[in-house]
Specification:
This protein is α/β, with parallel strands linked by helices. It is built from nine helices and 15 strands. It has two domains: 142 residues, Medium-chain alcohol dehydrogenases, catalytic domain (Quinone Oxidoreductase, Chain A, domain 1, Alpha-Beta Complex); 142 residues, NAD(P)-binding Rossmann-like Domain (Rossmann fold). Helix content is 28%, strand content 27%. Strands 3, 4, 5, 6, 7, 14 and 15 form a seven-stranded mixed sheet that branches. Strands 10-9-8-11-12-13 form a six-stranded parallel sheet, with helices on both faces. It has a two-stranded antiparallel sheet with strand order 1-2. A hairpin with a 2-residue loop joins strand 1 and strand 2. The longest helix has 23 residues.
C-alpha cells in the first residue's frame, strides 16, 4: 500500500513562512509505526486550532499533519494486537504535535497508542467524544476515586459549553449528580439544560476576591478554565472536596493561598490526558460508552469537512465552537 495516495492537511514552515494546506501524500510519506489506519473522523480541539493557525507552540517539528485525535479502520498491522478491519480510536501521545496526526485520510502509529472502538459507539460518535470527552471522563474517574458521590451536593463544571465541559455535564447528570454549569455564553443555557445541568450560572460566582476562603458550596468540581476561576473554586469547596483541573483557557497562573488545602482539606487533582496508560484508557472509554447518554452526545456534536478546517480553527480560538466538532477527513 506504499503507493496509495490520500489527502492530508500539511503544516509547513520555511524559515518564518508558515503554510497550512490540504495536499496529496502517499503512505510512504507517513512516519514509522506498526499500525496503518484508514482514518474516518478526527476532531477539532483548542490545541488543534493553535496548530493550524500557527498561534501557539504546539507543533514541535515541520512538516506536520495536525489533529490530536482520530478514529478509523486498521488497514495494515505488524502488531499482534490489531488486524485489518479492526475499528480503533486514538487520543493523545503527542500525535498531531510530534507525530503526524488525524487531519488525514491515512495515519501510521504505534499499536500501544490505540484502543479498540468501544462497543456501542460508532467511529463518528467516538470522535464526538474525542480528547475532550476522554478528558472529561478522566476528571469524573479522579473525583470518584477521591470519594465523590451524588449526595455530596452541587458539583460545578466551568467552561461548561466547551467540549470537555459539555461531556462532563452530561456524564455527571446521568450519574445522578446535581450539576451547576458555568458559562459566559448565554446562548448555551438551553443546550446545557438539555445535557442535564440543574442550574446555569455565569462567571460571577467565580469573580476574584481578596478573601482567602468563601462559603463552602461545592461538593466537587470539574474545571476546564484555570486561572482566577480555579482559584475561586478552591475557595468555595466543601471540606475534603476535590477539583479536577484540566484546562488553562483562563490563564496559567493560580492566584490562591494554602488555606483551602490546610483548613478544609481540599484536593486539587491535575488531569493529563496525553500519556494515560492503556488499561486506564480502556476503562475510561468503557465508562464513556456506558455513562455518556448518546442523545446528549448527539446534541453536543456537529460534523464538518476537513476542507473547512482553517476557518474552523479560527472559530475555536475565538470561543465560537459549542460542544464537539467532528471532522470528516474524507470531505
Amino acid at each position: 500500500m506504499s503507493d496509495k495516495t490520500f489527502n492530508a492537511l500539511l503544516l509547513e514552515k520555511d524559515n518564518d513562512e508558515f503554510s497550512a494546506s490540504i495536499k496529496p501524500l502517499t503512505v510512504s510519506d507517513l512516519p514509522e509505526g506498526d499500525v496503518l489506519v484508514e482514518v474516518a473522523y478526527s476532531t477539532l480541539n483548542y490545541k488543534d486550532g493553535l496548530a493550524v493557525t500557527n498561534k501557539g507552540k504546539v507543533v514541535r517539528g515541520f512538516p506536520m499533519v495536525p489533529g490530536i485525535d482520530f478514529a478509523g479502520t486498521v488497514a495494515e498491522s505488524s502488531s499482534p494486537d490489531y488486524k485489518p478491519g479492526d475499528k480503533v480510536v486514538l487520543t493523545g501521545w503527542g500525535v498531531g504535535e510530534t507525530h503526524w496526526g488525524g487531519f488525514s485520510q491515512m495515519a501510521r502509529v504505534k499499536a500501544g497508542w490505540l484502543v479498540p472502538l468501544p462497543a456501542g459507539l460508532t467511529l463518528e460518535q467516538s470522535m464526538g467524544i474525542g480528547t475532550a470527552g476522554f478528558t472529561a471522563m478522566l476528571c469524573v474517574l479522579a473525583l470518584e476515586k477521591l470519594g465523590l458521590t451524588p449526595d455530596a451536593g452541587e458539583v460545578a463544571v466551568t467552561g461548561a459549553s466547551g467540549g470537555v465541559g459539555s461531556v462532563a455535564v452530561a456524564v455527571l447528570a446521568k450519574l445522578g449528580y446535581t450539576v451547576v454549569a458555568s458559562t459566559g455564553r448565554t446562548e448555551s443555557h438551553a443546550y446545557l439544560k438539555e445535557l442535564g445541568a440543574a442550574e446555569i450560572v455565569d462567571r460571577s460566582p467565580f469573580a476574584p476576591s481578596k478573601r482567602p476562603l468563601e462559603s463552602a458550596r461545592w461538593g466537587g468540581a470539574v474545571d476546564t478554565v484555570g486561572g482566577e476561576i480555579l482559584a475561586a473554586l478552591l475557595k468555595a469547596m466543601k471540606p475534603e472536596a476535590s477539583v479536577a483541573a484540566c484546562g488553562n483557557a483562563g490563564g496559567f497562573d493560580l492566584p490562591t493561598t494554602v488555606l483551602p488545602f490546610i483548613l478544609r482539606g481540599v484536593n486539587l487533582l491535575g488531569i493529563n490526558s496525553v500519556m494515560v496508560p492503556y488499561d486506564e484508557r480502556v476503562e475510561a472509554w468503557r465508562r464513556l460508552a456506558q455513562d455518556l447518554p448518546l442523545d446528549a452526545l448527539n446534541k453536543a456534536m456537529e460534523v464538518a469537512p476537513l476542507s473547512n478546517i482553517k476557518s474552523l480553527a479560527e472559530d475555536i480560538l475565538k470561543g465560537q465552537i459549542r460542544g464537539r466538532l467532528v471532522i470528516d477527513v474524507n470531505a
